[in-house]
């Protein structure tokens, strides 16, 4: 049962202090009482789109736990509001909170397509899959308005360069006219995140994302258009969705996914405080149990930064999750293979058109 002060349509229920900031803000009860008496709104809960102008757009990924070498994020911050999102901590580098600010102050990189093209035209660049997202969802609601992801995909098609996508939004289907020719040359792989088959669980974990039905339909439509799909059953949260692994794997396999991956939730930095505040307001009857089980997967702490362990966890609960995932692969993905993307066409198209000589 949600508490009375629950903010509908958002994941985080407060702004945590920015670890880099000298000062902090506090929403005091006397201010809230003043707003009530005066009939004023203390917080309009609106999303802001703020343009930023980075000098580069392709990021080298050094973490051995992330299945990519390069990423490109058209947006920073994410309106989807997934309460567990590891990217929340990065918003502090921009001077904002990892809490509500992460969902309501969306930084927009309108120059991303031009920066990407400059990167692909660079003489020193060698073809390697660049993943759209990796930090925040490239098909979050802002993409309806700004269409930066679509413009980047057009650049990848122009240069016949391999690209991956990570999203939990059905908006990816809007760009089938670009994805289909990319797939024809084996230049695209799409990762669709499916965290639960329960719509109620989805609504509280990921408040502004596509419904589970729409995500499974998205996997089906992509697969029918010969676009390879990997399903991300992530994160697995003990006591919330850990019991769904087999059913999730069957559902995404039946929809056409060729493979799946999973991670065990970890709550680093400010995310631990944000998650704990959220679960005590949203699922108070099981909050202590869930928090304890998460900690049991990470050496007794919600925070785990150990390479090679942090995304899989350790201990009995983590092993049970791993065993269920192994069984799911044997049952539902035994004869399926996600293809390696093509890096051979790029050099011939590096100038923006096919080289004849």
TrEMBL record:
Q: Which UniProt keywords apply?
A: Iron, Iron-sulfur, Lyase, Metal-binding
Q: Which Pfam families match?
A: Radical_SAM
Q: Which CDD domains match?
A: Radical_SAM
In terms of Gene3D superfamilies, this protein maps to:
3.80.30.30
| UniProt domain Radical SAM core: residue ranges | 64-301
According to the UniProt entry, its GO molecular function terms are: iron-sulfur cluster binding; lyase activity; metal ion binding
InterPro entries, sorted: Elp3/MiaA/NifB-like_rSAM, MJ0683-like, rSAM, rSAM_sf
UniProt keyword Secreted, yes or no: no
Check the record and name the SUPFAM superfamilies matching this protein: Radical SAM enzymes
- Give the source's domain of life in one word: Bacteria
Query: What name does the UniProt record give this protein?
Result: DNA repair photolyase
The upper taxonomy is: Bacteria, Pseudomonadati, Bacteroidota, Flavobacteriia, Flavobacteriales
């Amino acid at each position: 049962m949600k508490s009375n002060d629950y903010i509908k349509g958002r994941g985080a229920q407060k702004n945590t202090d920015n670890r880099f900031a000298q000062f902090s803000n506090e929403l005091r009860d006397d201010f809230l009482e003043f707003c009530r008496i005066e009939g004023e709104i203390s917080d309009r809960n609106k999303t802001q789109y703020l343009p930023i102008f980075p000098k580069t757009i392709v990021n080298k990924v050094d973490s051995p736990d992330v299945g990519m070498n390069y990423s490109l994020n058209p947006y920073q911050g994410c309106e989807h509001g997934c309460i567990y999102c590891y990217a929340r901590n990065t918003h502090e580098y921009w001077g904002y909170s990892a809490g509500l600010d992460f969902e309501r102050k969306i930084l927009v990189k309108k120059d991303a397509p031009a920066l990407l093209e400059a990167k692909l035209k660079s003489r020193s660049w060698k073809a390697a899959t660049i993943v759209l997202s990796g930090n925040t969802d490239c098909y979050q609601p802002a993409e309806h308005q700004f269409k930066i992801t679509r413009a980047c995909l057009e650049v990848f098609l122009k240069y016949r360069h391999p690209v991956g996508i990570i999203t939990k939004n059905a908006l990816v289907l809007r760009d089938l006219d670009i994805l289909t020719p990319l797939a024809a040359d084996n230049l695209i792989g799409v990762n669709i995140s499916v965290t639960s088959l329960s719509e109620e669980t989805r609504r509280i974990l990921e408040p502004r994302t596509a419904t589970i039905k729409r995500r499974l339909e998205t996997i089906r439509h992509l697969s029918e258009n010969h676009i390879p799909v990997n399903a991300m059953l992530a994160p697995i949260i003990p006591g919330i969705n850990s019991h769904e692994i087999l059913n999730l794997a069957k559902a995404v396999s039946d929809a056409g996914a060729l493979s799946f991956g999973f991670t065990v939730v970890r709550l680093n930095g400010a995310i631990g405080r944000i998650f704990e505040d959220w679960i005590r307001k949203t699922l108070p009857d099981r909050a202590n149990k869930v928090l304890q089980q998460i900690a049991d997967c990470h050496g007794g702490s919600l925070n785990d930064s150990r390479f090679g362990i942090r995304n899989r966890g350790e201990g009995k609960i983590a092993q049970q999750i791993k065993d269920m995932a192994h069984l799911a692969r044997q049952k539902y993905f035994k004869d399926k293979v996600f293809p390696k993307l093509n890096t051979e066409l790029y050099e011939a198209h590096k100038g923006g058109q096919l080289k004849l000589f």
